[in-house]
Write a structure and sequence with these properties.
Blueprint lengths: L18 E4 H6 L9 E9 L2 E11 L8 E8 L2 E13 L5 E6 L6 E2 L1 E4 L7 E2 H4 L10 H17 L7 H30 L6 H5 L6
Antiparallel strand pairs: 1-8, 2-3, 3-4, 4-5, 5-6, 6-7, 8-9
Helix pairs in contact: 3-4
Length: about 210
């Protein structure tokens, strides 16, 4: 009699497992003010282990052809020193929006990541990595999305616009309707004695 070992799942890191620097962080820390240079110390931990200890700087002054993001420190036990160009674009209704110029693709991006096995920060597209949600089935994504929408609805201020509330309610209704169709299709399969499939149920309309 032959015994077959159950194949073990291979660990595949996602974007969430990477070190990340994004323009939201820089804006929140006031590092996109062109009046001067700015420095920020950041540490990342994985469990109880120090994964990275970096000093992030935005340089707007001095003899520079363009503003830059400077990254220096230690990541996964190795020294890192990297410079990334900052690019601004005028917004339609005034103000600026800042981007990174990806060192690899030379395209604009809002987030730079460094995978556990990487050596330089680059855009998500360069790494070819997926977000965790992209590996979840449609039902799980819908459930999480519905939870976020419900939380957003409960946190709306009393004076929120009527159109804002209606849009949230419409999105919640759409997610609930989708989950109801999936449940109905699964129940239909069980009633017929068939093995139900979430993938088949989420890709088809509920049986009538």
């Amino acid at each position: 009699m032959a015994f077959h070992a159950t194949p073990q799942k291979t660990y595949v890191p996602t974007v969430e497992n990477c070190l990340a620097i994004d323009t939201v962080l820089l804006r929140r820390e006031g590092m996109l003010d062109e009046a001067g240079d700015h420095h920020l110390s950041r540490k990342w931990r994985v469990g109880h282990t120090m994964a990275a200890d970096l000093v992030i700087s935005t340089i707007f002054t001095g003899d520079l052809a363009y503003p830059i993001l400077h990254i220096q420190g230690e990541v996964f036990g190795e020294r890192v020193r990297q410079t990334v160009r900052l690019v601004s674009k005028r917004m339609r209704f005034g103000g600026k929006r800042w981007y990174f110029l990806c060192p690899s693709t030379k395209r604009l991006c809002c987030k730079l990541i460094l995978p556990p096995t990487g050596h330089l920060f680059a855009s998500v597209k360069t790494s070819g990595m997926a977000y965790r949600s992209q590996r979840e089935d449609a039902v799980t994504r819908a459930q999480k999305s519905l939870s976020r929408l419900q939380r957003a609805s409960s946190e709306l201020p009393l004076r929120a616009r009527r159109s804002t509330r209606e849009k949230l309610l419409a999105r919640m209704a759409a997610k609930e309707a989708f989950l109801d169709r999936v449940e109905q299709r699964c129940n239909w399969d069980l009633a017929l004695g068939r093995r139900f499939s979430l993938r088949r149920a989420s890709n088809s309309r509920a049986a009538t």
